[in-house]
Amino acid sequence: MAHVSHIDTATVFAMFCAQHFLPNEDGRVAFVLPRSVMAGATQHKNFREGRAAFLYAPVAALDLDAVEPLFRIPASVMIFDKVEREGKPEVPWQWPTRALAGQLPRKNADRSEADAALTESEGEAATPTSPSPYVAQTQQGADMRPRAFCIVEADPSAKVLDRQQPYLRSDSQAVADADPAWRGVSIDGRVEARFLYATSLRVDPFRIGPLRLAALPIEGNDKGEVEVLQQEEILARGHAGMARWLAHAEEEFRAVLEKTEREWKGTVVDYLNTQSKLGRQKPLAHRVVWGKGGTHIRAAVPPSGIAEAQGLPVHGYIIDLSCYGVVCASQDEAHYLCAVLNSTTAGDAIAYHQTRGEQGRRDIHRRPVQHVPIPVFDHGNRKHSRLAELSLEAHSTALSVPFDSRYRAERYREALGEPLREIDRLANEVLQAAYRDAT
What we know:
It is a single chain. The protein is 30% helix and 22% strand. By secondary structure, the protein is α+β, with helices and mostly antiparallel strands. Among the domains are: 10-128, no CATH class; 142-202 and 209-283 and 308-321, no CATH class. The strands form seven sheets. It has a six-stranded mixed beta sheet with strand order 9-8-7-13-10-20. α9 crosses α12 (382-398) and α12 runs antiparallel to α14. The chain is globular, with a radius of gyration of 25 Å.
């Protein structure tokens, strides 16, 4: 069973068709593709810049974003030629881009109707951007799924809460929200507190969502890193509670795989540590985190020195798969980054590069550090230090904003008022200087 979190085969399909359905040496393809292909989506970068292992050359890109009615998601047309080796231009490419706009009289309008309804103008092509030095330090969080194996709560029926080896069960909300294949799967039992960590499944601007409790097969070392442990290793170290928990998880894991006719060669621990996302965690480090989805960047700094969650001792904070994070040298650096990420300038800078669906812009992922040249924190730079101070202040104020289910960032902008306006001003000055340096 493949365990893949992101996949998009649009350009793979386009290249396959060109390779197999055109003559050997030449031919032209005009392919209707998601607008994200021409608008800078990272997964299509090799195709867009001419780096795909295929002999082709760009002809034009047509932006159909302003054409209605059309498709359920924004679309584009990418036109390219199949060429011989000497005909492939040097990379990276810039596609000549035109934009069509107008209201069609109906869906599936014919050519004459489209000619009468649409106007054509110069379009905006994806241009190479200057990444931040922080891009290399950016990592996605741990894939703590199935959540019933990891996200836990103390048994509410327990009369006494044993802080050393509490009796736990799968978090009831995690069980209810599980994917259909895992719905109803739940585990309970005693787990040694040394395996408990804090986490959160949401991030708001300048605010980590409600802390959740995670039981994970990892232990920290003196370097601030974690060691991922298999069930047998945990039992050999004398931790029978966590070993039994993993044995139960393994049984449930295999039962669901058999029921759904899927395969996984490793253990449930290997599954939780897919792409080493669990093993790369640094639970005690200073970090800034932001949500991977949504329209706007929502960044926050986890409280330093988290020692307790839901009344039980924990050994730091684990970043969830729903977030990205950067490990920082200091709390000041984390708050500086947080302020810049939450600024209007950073949000505007990634807007063109975001994928778009029926509800508009979406998906943040690594875009803030891929397309915004955020400079490395300099404690001696007054603007950097002031941004860190303002972020710390904003975190305090943000606690007064009630959580809601719609992740509406404007509620925080209203509550933060003048400090956020100062963040916007300073972040814009810092980023404009970085853009000048990059060019």
